[in-house]
Amino acid sequence: MRITIFGTGYVGLVTGACFAEVGNDVVCVDVDGGKIDRLNRGDIPIYEPGLEGVVVRNREAGRLRFTTDTAAGVHHGQLQFIAVGTPPDEDGSADLRHVLTVAGSIAEHMTDYKVIVDKSTVPVGTADRVREAVDRGLAARGVTVDYAVVSNPEFLKEGAAVDDFMKPERVIIGSDDARARDLLHSLYSPFNRNHDRLISMDVRSAELTKYAANAMLATKISFMNELANIADRVGADIERVRIGIGSDPRIGYHFIYPGAGYGGSCFPKDVQALARTAHDVDYVPQLLQAVEEVNDRQKHYVFNRIREHFAGHLSGRCFAVWGLSFKPNTDDMREAPAGRLMESLWEAGASVRAFDPKAMAETRAIYGEREGLVLCDSPEAALEGADALVIMTEWNLFRSPDFEAMRERLAAPVIFDGRNLYDPDYLADLGYAYYAIGRPVQA
Ligand code: NAD
Questions:
Q1: Which of 33, 274, 356, 407 could cross-link to 211 by cystine, CB 3.0-4.6 Å?
Q2: Cβ(114)–Cβ(80) under 8 Å?
């Protein structure tokens, strides 16, 4: 099938590459010329496991092309995917500017039947707004062209995006148009061979499903963080509690890890946008508000622990920070708890020696050569002379370090672990002061 994807970010690039991988003819359009130049050189602008191979292979086979030429993109695909960013607006609602710009561009250039597919995460009612934008564009040209708008929200996880796309848990297709729905079913059939994963529904339910999924996951995290804070105060160990409750299949072990708060480009903005939608229809979303508030508080947890340990004297101190991306296996730093922590440390007059396996370039792009930040080549180098180690992302590389050797490099054997990676008793035996989340302190 001939497919056009607008937006070559985490979602658009993975979507385009994976559709090409199963034999489709894909053109990806982005307004960022630098990104398109890099992609045309076979240089992948983001880190996503397995993505480079898929992009390079399909680009070389001529099934995957990259351009800034919107008109050419519109002419190419019968299926026009919108996978552009939907960042939060000032009031927390999703900013649909990019989505509606693409809708306008499609209307400006289309000459035959198109299925316009919203893959970006967009509030309920956006398909109607896309339709209005397209109708306006067609009316301005004085032409009538048949088209359909479909909601097909994306559920891939950064860090496992290619796998998730190739073997999706579900594909949601929200459409009121039988022809468009059939086209989408054909498109996804290669990803649907093992058992039926396609779930068809009306457009509004599809739009809400994406927010419901992310809000549920964010709720699980905030719930566990709330419990961790209670565990701290009553002298319980949240890790024992986690294992205890996860054993109930109604609760399950997935996604109930306490930590330094959720980040990333999706959970924070999607919880906010869903709350905004609720307010817009005169409903007070108490639970969603609490999920967000608990998360904001949690992002200060590690810093507060550090401040307490050093009795408020942080000025002039140096901290090794392991893990900068918002989660492992990605270079994405959007809303990363590590960013908030470093900013708090700098405000308090401390400096940071930072290491991340994949997010160093992104960290440099965000913070540049600022004073108080040393970007290190290895986890060991980050420790050199630091007053403590702070762990903010649970990369596998950090799970079983050489604690004896680390003690030699650190100025003092102190670890603040925002991801509960280690055994507190073991570290206490080695002479470390060890602070985790919701676990009795070993100091
Ligand atoms: P991103 O910021 O990585 O990429 C968006 C891309 O769109 C950028 O390259 C930008 O230059 C491009 N763009 C903006 N306006 C454009 C236009 N008019 N024409 C063509 N390209 C344009 O964003 P992302 O993380 O890929 O997210 C995209 C959407 O998918 C968002 O709505 C997001 O909520 C949703 N989503 C993201 C994830 C994720 O894990 N990142 C998962 C599921 C859904």
A1: 274
A2: yes
Q: Is the pLDDT of residue 303 over 80?
A: yes
Q: Is any atom of ligand 1 closer than 6 Å to the C-beta of 19? A: no
For each of the domains in the chain, give its residue range(s) and CATH number, in order of start: 2-201 (3.40.50.720), 211-297 (1.10.1040.10), 299-435 (3.40.50.720)
**By CB neighbour count within 10 A (0-12 exposed, 13-18 middle, 19+ buried), where does 397 fall?**
middle
Cα–ligand 1 centroid distance for 44 (angstroms): 15
Query: Count of CB atoms within 10 A of residue 423's CB?
Result: 14
Asked whether this complex has an ipTM greater than 0.95, the answer is yes
Q: What is the pLDDT of residues 410-442, one digit of tens each?
A: 999 999 999 999 999 999 999 999 999 999 986
Distance of CA 96 to the CA centre of its chain: 18
* Ligand 1 contact via 266 beta carbon (within 6 Å): yes
322 lines ligand 1 (CB under 6 A): no
Q: Which two tokens stand for residue 192?
A: 């649907």
* 299 labelled ligand-binding: no
Cα-to-centroid distance, 309 and ligand 1 (Å): 41
∠130-134-138 over CA atoms, to 5°? Answer: 170
Residue 274 has pLDDT above 80, yes or no: yes
Question: 3-state class of 199 per DSSP?
Answer: strand
pLDDT in tens, 180-235: 999 999 999 999 988 899 999 999 999 999 999 999 999 999 999 999 999 999 99
Residue 257, marked binder: yes
